[in-house]
Amino acid sequence: MQPHSGRTTVLWRGRTSRGLNRLQWRITTNGRLGRTRTLAEFGDTPRVATDATGRTVAVWLADRRARRTGVRTAVRRVGEFLKPTTVTRSPAAALRLVTSDGGSSVAAWLSGPSSGDPEGPLGTVQVATRTASSSFGSPASLGVGSTLSLAGSPDGHAVLVADRHVSGTLVVVSASRRDPNKPFGPLVDVSPAGFVSDAFPAAVAISDGGRALVTWASGVDPSAPTPAGVFAAVAEPSAAFDSPQQLADAQTATLPQPTAGAITRSAAVVVWAGPQGGQIARAGPR
Q1: pLDDT tens digits, 43-98
Q2: What global pTM score does this model have?
Q3: Please, are residues 181 and 132 in contact by the beta-carbon 8 Å criterion?
Q4: Most exposed residue of 2, 157, 250, 251, measured as fewest CB within 10 angstroms of its CB?
Q5: How far is CA 114 from CA 46, 91, 119, 226, 243, in A?
Q6: How far apart are CA 136 and CA 49, in angstroms?
Q7: pLDDT at residue 218 above 60?
Q8: What DSSP string runs through 195-213?
Q9: Domains (ranges, CATH) in the chain?
Q10: Of the candidates 162, 70, 175, 67, which has an alpha carbon nearest to the alpha carbon of residue 121?
Q11: What 3-state class would DSSP assign to 238?
Q12: Confidence at residue 10, expressed as pLDDT on a 0 to 100 scale
């Protein structure tokens, strides 16, 4: 959705009238979706983001059916998307994309032959960035992860979170932040080791100004006693994450499970569902 105007672009894996698998898209005009348009190729996990000027960036995983690997991208300002280009040819999974109002975009993914393994994903966390006037640069590697979440703010801050296995079932949640137009910092551990499911990874949010929130649910570890519950950690701009705060236990959460959060410059909320229904925890205003 384009900021301020609400103009919306939808991108999906489709099929043409001739039966060809292709990425297809539609865009709203005067509040209504226009005709279906087709990109020149097919792929998986398409992601799309639009800045305040209407410039739209799309990324997707290269079509494995054609024995291709890596991340592909295309951009449009008006009319059709430009010819797709390659961000990386290395095997990739868990693709994510955010963009700022000013057109600063971040793509993140897990790279490596095991990154897309549903039984035990494992890869190198990689990021690539672009500006409104430049293409994606060379990917940067941040560390090892099994899952990946990414969030961005309108002013260009970004934060990603990775779940890293430190033993068979014990997982540490780590985060890396980026100030506008700056490189990402190294992954820093946010949580103690716990049982965080690969199916329900940590969630992340970031506000204008760079205030960040990470939230996750840790279940009862089958091999060792570890804390169980819903947890959250907040980082003020240019400061380390606070110690995690426990928001729920097995009485008010179904563990492990997904969580979600949102944050502003002065407040934060975390939501989850459990035996007592939907739950919400609020912090602030400060």
Answers
A1: 999 999 999 999 999 999 999 999 999 999 999 988 999 999 999 999 999 999 99
A2: 0.94
A3: no
A4: 251
A5: 20, 9, 10, 27, 32
A6: 14
A7: yes
A8: B--TTS--EEEE-TTS-EE
A9: 146-286 (2.120.10.10)
A10: 162
A11: coil
A12: 96
